[in-house]
Amino acid sequence: MPLHGLQHIEPAVLFVLFFVVVLAALAKRLEVPYAIILMIGGLLLGVIPGIPHLRLNPNVFFLVILPPLIFSGAFLMPWRDFRNNLSTITMLAVGLVGFTVFGIAAATRWLLPGFDWRTGLVLGAVVAATDPIAATAIARRLGLPQRLMHILEGESLVNDATGLLALEFATALVVSGHIPSLAAGAARLLYLIFGSIVIGLIVGKIIHEFERRIADAPIEITISLLAPYFAYLGAESLHASGVMATVACGLYLGHRSSVYFSRDARVQSAAVWDTLTFALNGVVFILIGLQLPYIKAEIVSLRLPQLLRDALVFSAILILLRLVWMYPAAWASNFVRGRWQRRAAPFPNPRAVFIMGWTGMRGALGLAAALALPEVLDSGARFPQRSTIIFLTFCVIFVTLVLQGLTLPSLIRGLGLAGGIHADREEEGARRAMIEAAISYLDTARKADTTQFAALYDELARFERRRLSALAGDGAATAQGGYRPEDYERMQNVLQEMRTVQRAVITRMRNENKINEDVLRRLEHELDLRSTVAEHS
After folding, report:
1. Are 102 and 124 in contact (CB under 8 A)?
2. Is 59 part of a structural domain of the chain?
3. What single DSSP character describes residue 376?
């Protein structure tokens, strides 16, 4: 790229990043999900004369921005909870996507002039996938049950892929005018799903084998940053689903990260990925707002007042479709869990089901998909209703993100679902097991060591017992000083071995499904920090 081209890009990138920081800080101060403030801020910036307008390039979004965001969500998704909630996630990410696509196709034939069932399918596929950022941010702050959080996150991971798969089929119907046979369509769908998963798992296995032979944090983290691109581009080059492959790769590597990541890589990678995902999400949402001038230019020849009315009705239909689907889907997934997964559970609280239905916010994926629609058909004619599809998608994102995002806290409180951040019983049990393992190790090591260090072992054992009492609410654990200089080196060795035992305990509990990856990562992070502090003290 020529130097003068870079000189034009640099101010625009700095401009966007600066406002991401400013608006995110404002959102934190107002206690509003930053996605909402960033989109509104982008809209306001877009109408200010002289402000640089940046077009959301679909190729950049799908090839550069989307893979790490998808990978990060999959990496942090607890595999046990994803597997346990698979029936519910499937009902939402597959069943609801199909219901939405066909429901929108049916509605647009009488709602929107010029739409037939094929263009309706395209519009339905464009808006089918949800965005989890605002909903999960609000839900976490208000203390929604953890299972609902995992379902929301799992749905958003998988429905990105299923929505794009539906869009591929719908777009092909419009562009070529050819309706594939049932066998050909089923074969293509199976390849897109299972072929993509296999590709993602193969990439994940290769990266896992490579990572576990390296113990250098910068190299390990760099490889982890490349992993989503390897999975995405590998699948796309084989005409499979890059999104599905990235999800599979992220789930596989996230489940095994405790095995192949070194201690320093675990400590440092969390900060690197948190910063990267925040910056990418921030850029995406502010860019959504900045698309308004381009979208206005697309619809200059259309009747704006009528389009706005249609957009409001269309948004209401989209929200209603999700709410209608939620209750039978909750019953069906509960039936499947009891009959085939042998995980019988009472029917979910109807109020919680409603909240799940109200979290169907749309985001950048839909707008990028709409912008990526081809401009001409195979016949040379213009893609029908392309400008209207882009406009309606933009309006749906604004309505669902702002309306549902801002009303969600009040609804959660009003329905009595808000609660404090309760103690995690699994985490408490894991902490107890860690402390008991440490005490057992100290007792065994004391007997095997010389009597010279008996006092050191006794003091460490007393400290761990005080921690156990504090965990039960019987008092606070406080460290005792006064070690002799000759005890210090032995103490460091003992503590290192003790942390190794504790790490083995929580890893075994994860493997036995007694805790999930969230709990494992939190406790492992504490152990890693203690080891790092001890090493540098």
Report:
1. yes
2. no
3. B
Query: What is the DSSP track for 156-188?
Result: HHHHHHHHHHHHHHHHHHHHH-----HHHHHHH
Q: Are 114 and 25 in the same domain?
A: yes
Helices 146-176 and 350-358 pack at an angle, to 10 degrees, of: 40
What is the domain-level CATH number for residue 347?
A: 1.20.1530.20
Residue of 183, 179, 170, 203 whose CA lies nearest to 74: 203
Cα–Cα distance measured from residue 370 to residue 389, given in angstroms and rounded to the nearest whole number: 7
Q: Is residue 378 a part of any domain in this protein?
A: yes
Please provide the DSSP assignment of 242-298 as one string. HHHHHHHHHHHHHHHHHHHS-HHHHHHHHHHHHHHHHHHHHHHHHHHHHTHHHHHHH
Q: pLDDT tens for residues 433-491?
A: 888 888 888 888 888 887 777 887 888 888 888 777 777 655 444 444 444 555 556 77
| Interatomic CA distance for residues 503 and 526, integer angstroms | 10
248-269 as b/e: b if 16+ CB within 10 A: bbbbbbbbbbbebbbbbbbbbb
| C-alpha triplet 187, 190, 193: angle, nearest 5° | 150
Same domain, 296 and 336: yes
Burial of 183 (0-12, 13-18, 19+ CB in 10 A): exposed
Distance between CA atoms of residues 478 and 475, nearest Å: 10
Which structural domain, as residue segments, surrounds residue 531? 425-536
d(CA 309, CA 395): 11
Of 414, 448, 480, the last residue of a domain is: 414
317 token code pair: 């239909």
**Contact 246/232 with Cβ under 8 angstroms?**
yes
Q: Tell me the pLDDT tens digit for each residue of 254-267.
A: 998 888 888 888 88
CA separation for the pair 503, 524 (Å, rounded) = 7
The domain tally of the chain equals 2
DSSP bridge partners of 376:
382
- What pLDDT sits at residue 487? 57
Same domain, 76 and 153: yes
321 and 435 share one domain:
no
376 phi, psi to nearest 5 deg: -130, 155
